[in-house]
Amino acid sequence: QVQLVESGGGLMQPGESLKLSCTFSENIFIVMGWARQAPKTLRDSVAEISAGGNTKYADSVKGRFTISRDDTKNTLYLQMNSLKPEDTAVYYCFGKSEVRDYWGQGTVVTVSS
Questions:
Q1: 3-class secondary structure for 19-50?
Q2: Most C-beta atoms within 10 A of its C-beta, which of 1, 10, 86, 102?
C-alpha cells in the first residue's frame, strides 16, 4: 500500500513563510502535487510537478509558492512565502501513478494575525 504523509503545517502570520513536506513510501508517480481545501470549498490543486521536473501553479499562488521533489529522499515539498489569510486550508499531498491517484491525510495551515 503506497502511503503519502504530509508534515509542516501550522499557525502563521500574514507575510511569513512555511515549508510543507510529504514523504512517500514508493516512487511510482508520474505527477505529484499539492492541493488545498478551505472550509465549505472544493479541494483545488495549487501546485504540480512532473517526474521530469516541470511545474504548474494555480494563479493564486504563482510567485509565492514553489513545489519541488527530492526523489533520493522520496519527499515532496511546498515552499510557501508571503502567506495570506486566504491561504488558510487543509493542504493535501497527492501523487498520480499510471493506475490511480494517491492522497495524503492532510496538514492544516492557518494564516491569521
A1: EEEEEECCCCCCEEEEEEECCCCCCEEEEEEE
A2: 102
Residue 37 has a CB neighbour count (10 Å cut-off) of: 14
DSSP 41-83: S--EEEEEEETT--EEE-TTTTTTEEEEEETTTTEEEEEE-S-
